[in-house]
Amino acid sequence: MAVNTQHFFQHVDDFMDYRQTVYEISEQTMRTNRIDLDLFKRFVKEHRYDAIDGNVAMKFQYYLKVKRDNSGGSINRKLFTLRSYARFLQLADVPLADKLPFQSVLKIRQGYRNRPGALTHEQLETLFHSIDRSTRLGIRDYAAYALMYQLGLRVGEVHSLNLENIDLDNSTITVIGKGKKRRSLHLKDELKQIISEWLAVRSRFKNSELNDSLFISKKGNRLAIRTLEDNFKKLVKQAKLEAHFNITCHTLRHTMASHLNDKGTDILVLQSLLGHATTRSTEIYIHPSADIVRDALEKLPGVIYMKQLIESGELPLAFQGSKALQRE
């Protein structure tokens, strides 16, 4: 026995409304949940499954791994969404919802395939210099992205900031993170100046006096996450940044953690700054830069000994140039 496909997808809107109203799920998580459920719906429709059973769940997991080449972390997240939806259907007394198999599907024990990418100091400087701060929109975007880098804020956290969250007198900002967890962060003088510049021009935006949001759009609404992401993509393209990874708003958060790690910041401090529940979540953000890795290798006892031998002349080495290679 299994849940009829049509019955399974009938309650998605109710599920989303319930999660948003009762659990106060963030807009970003809500959007991700919707994407996960829509993807599963397309999968079921394309394969013309009439009911949702264990076979469908396993084939979906196989499809994500083989056809879409999703990482373990991405697959686990999608299945978590389906587990949450299945529990909702069961509580809503949807016929046979207790037979849904998602709870039995094993998690993939590989986590995320690659550590998230981080920008170099040079790339970061190029990026911020590409923002036109002679315009109101440029001043706004500069402040928003500065918060993402200097404080490691998520794009959703910047989106949800209100004017009351900023206390310039006491140099603090209150951030509402995942699970509605609040954390208070220190504002450096530089960041206070950047925010002050934005507040000075914010009043020129439509309906600014009627909106409590820290960042607002040209139309006077709370600045949308999609707008922040789209503007950032344009900025990356304009700055002509090249990297082996996809550069997104979240890259600024990764970059902040990596740069602090290079300076020897304790992982517990990074955990607190990033608003993580455990240090395990923080570990994937830490990137030692190429310079740090090179310096570490240079400090190996064997490397130091070899250098001493070369410098003393006891170990003469001649590096072949292009002409020498051509003679061979």
How would you sum up this structure, described in words?
There is one protein chain. The protein is mostly helical. The protein folds into three domains: 3-104, Tyrosine recombinase, N-terminal domain (DNA polymerase, domain 1, Orthogonal Bundle); 121-283, Intergrase catalytic core (hpI Integrase, Chain A); 289-328, no CATH class. Helix content is 55%, strand content 5%. It has helices at residues 5-9, 12-22, 27-46, 54-67, 72-91, 121-129, 136-150, 155-159, 189-202, 225-239, 249-262, 267-274, 279-283, 290-298, 301-312, 322-327, and strands at residues 3-4, 51-52, 166-167, 172-176, 182-186. A hairpin with a 4-residue loop joins β3 and β4. It starts with a strand and ends with a helix. 26% of the residues are buried.
